[in-house]
Amino acid sequence: MPSRTSPRLDARKKPRQARALATLDAIFEATIQVLLTDGPYRLTTTRVALRAGVSVGTMYQYFPNKQALFYALNERYMDTLAEKVETTCKARHGIPVRQMVEALLTTYWNAKMERPDVTQALYRAIAELDNGPLIEAFGRRVDAATTTMLSSASDAVFTDLPGVNLTLLTTIFGTVRNVFERNLPSTEAEAVREQLLLMCTAYLEAVSAQRTPGANPAALRCGCDAAATAS
Fold it and tell me: 16 is in which domain, residue-wise?
């Protein structure tokens, strides 16, 4: 069977001047609105150009097809989301793990809920896009930020930090996405958020070893590993 050729996903033109950046913002906003009203399958670059108030020629200068447009929209969104998570994690080094989880969950939740229409639109566009590279890049950035934060917790240490971190993020990300897929009303969504915080906090407390004041994290991990081997 012949292999399918992937459509070109990179933008043709990188905006640098303020006017070009404004044009790109208008195109992205128009893409979101067309996605919400027409869905990903009926969306065309012509419809987006009309909604954005730009010519089809201008549209084509940036994006050769709608897959490239979807890719760029997702790339911008995920880059902004990763930056927010990184900033939150860097500011929470050395505090109790419960406060870390609350800050992480609040940041991710608020980012998704800040503009629910954008989140909904991007979820709709995923069916039209192979965004594996974007997800991998986002995952690497978030994993690095959260594992570094958790490793500095003042009151806990994790012998399998990568596994714990993966479980934590999968739980948070999956739950938040399900809230959108179910289109839950705000009261129910907020109830889920509170339960999610409780669940994540209880999980981290269950899998962590208590850290004594002044204890060396590496030494404590070694001690836990040795105890596990002996048992």
Answer: 11-64
